[in-house]
Amino acid sequence: MVTVPTTLPERVIHLRDVQKAYHNGREITPVLKQVNLDIDRGEFVFLAGPSGCGKSTLLAILGAMLTPDSGIVRILGQNLVGLDHEARTLFRRQKVGFIFQRFHLIRGLSVIENVCVPMAIRGRSSAPSRRAAGDLLAAVGLAGKEAARTHRLSSGQQQRVAIARALIGDPALILADEPTASLDAKNGQAVVELLRNLVKQQGKTAVVVTHDRRIFPLADRICMLENGRLTSDTCESIATGDHSENLPWV
After folding, report:
1. Which residue, 198, 202, 206, is CA-closest to 173?
2. Number of folded domains in the chain?
3. What is the CATH number of the domain that holds 123?
4. What does 85-106 look like in DSSP terms, one character per residue?
5. Is residue 34 a contact partner of residue 122, using CB atoms and an 8 Å limit?
6. Per-residue model confidence as pLDDT tens digits over 37-69
7. In sequence order, what are the residues at sequence separation of 6 or more whose Cβ sits closer than 8 angstroms to the Cβ of residue 129?
8. Range of the structural domain that residue 195 is part of
9. Is the dihedral of CA 140, 144, 150, 156 positive or negative?
10. Contact 183, 100 (CB under 8 A)
11. For 236, which DSSP code?
12. 156 vs 187: CA distance, rounded Å
């Protein structure tokens, strides 16, 4: 069984020479090629690049959903390489919160019940979980919506529910895959600003996969992935303005 460190290190993500390829019979398709990446506690980092460049694969490795073919993957002080399925599942439940582009809310449950799902999976008492969920829903601007059915909410409201659900277990690392893909410009900006503010206030770390240049100025850093490679000269701090003209795919 994995032992998760109780004291969080300043370096949340440490990748060295990470490689991943997909196999289809005799055909081998390289996806990640010797990726090196370091992210510290409190950073709000974007992974950007053209479709098919390996962004989602890299995010899945960071979230212990995929294992690399080779390389070092150390997340929150834990070496994830070599962990079995049970250990990786436990690590995800304890330390990682996920936000998906299509929300993945459960239609038959209320807003507050959706937020409490991760705690139910952990076997936590429902009363404390509902109180924590209520606090998070207030923090994301959904106070009074606890009993609503999620399919009756707007897309922006549904993504706020997804953010609250990702935060309910107090994870140290938040991973978001194209969180603005289903939102218009106004709601996309508002949702990512909200996520950034919560991450900064709570001392967490977030990695956001996106190709939405409208939100680029909100990142502390944008790490650009091209042809499966992420190099030091493509990790730029551009939070001070819109530098999208420097990105070849936009």
Report:
1. 206
2. 1
3. 3.40.50.300
4. HHHHHHHHHHHEEEE-TT----
5. no
6. 999 999 999 999 888 889 999 999 999 999 999
7. 116, 119, 120, 168
8. 44-65+84-241
9. negative
10. no
11. E
12. 6
The gap from C-alpha 70 to its chain's centroid, in whole angstroms, comes to: 22
| Cα pseudo-dihedral 14, 17, 21, 26, rounded to 10 | -150
Whether residue 77 lies inside any domain: the answer is: no
Phi first, then psi: give them for residue 226, nearest 5 degrees: -135, 130
Q: Is 76 a member of any domain?
A: no
pTM attached to this predicted model:
0.86
At residue 190, what is the residue type?
A
C-beta of residue 194 within 8 angstroms of C-beta of residue 163: yes
Residue 245 identity? E
Q: From 233, 224, 167, select the one nearest 45 (Cα to Cα).
A: 224
At position 185, the amino acid (one-letter code) is A
Dmax (CA) for the chain in angstroms is: 55
Let me know if residue 55 belongs to a domain. Answer: yes
| Residues in CB range of 125: below 8 A, 6 or more apart | none
Indicate whether 6 belongs to any domain. no
Q: Alpha-carbon distance 111 to 29, whole Å?
A: 41
Nearest to 183 by CA among 157, 220, 152: 157
Q: What is the pLDDT of residues 68-120, one digit of tens each?
A: 999 999 999 999 998 999 999 999 999 999 998 788 899 889 999 999 999 98
Packing angle, helices 155-167 and 126-139, rounded to 10 = 130
Kind of pairing between the strands at 205-209 and 173-177: parallel
